[in-house]
């Protein structure tokens, strides 16, 4: 252009701007739809951006529920492993008392994390995170 200003500073035609905005709008809608699909895999999703925006307002709560669900599932699997190995063990009592060594002193659980990390990765393959544990949404709603 002969104005001496860089091309990106030059005003564009309304048609060009509208075309760019339409493309950007479609990209945003697709990203929002992908996020909503990941968060609610079993729910049919709205197509419009306004409806998607309303749906995504619940995303923070959904992430929190997934976090609680994953934590609970991990604990469930860990206690199942303990119970199958030590059939007379009382997981409820152990969970209340905590890890105590033969000397009666508490054992910091962080000391054994490194020893169980590989097993946790193998067990993770059995844990389906595409849905929440049964009843956790209702339970969370009652406690909040």
From TrEMBL:
It comes from the Eukaryota. This is Rx N-terminal domain-containing protein. It comes from Triticum aestivum.
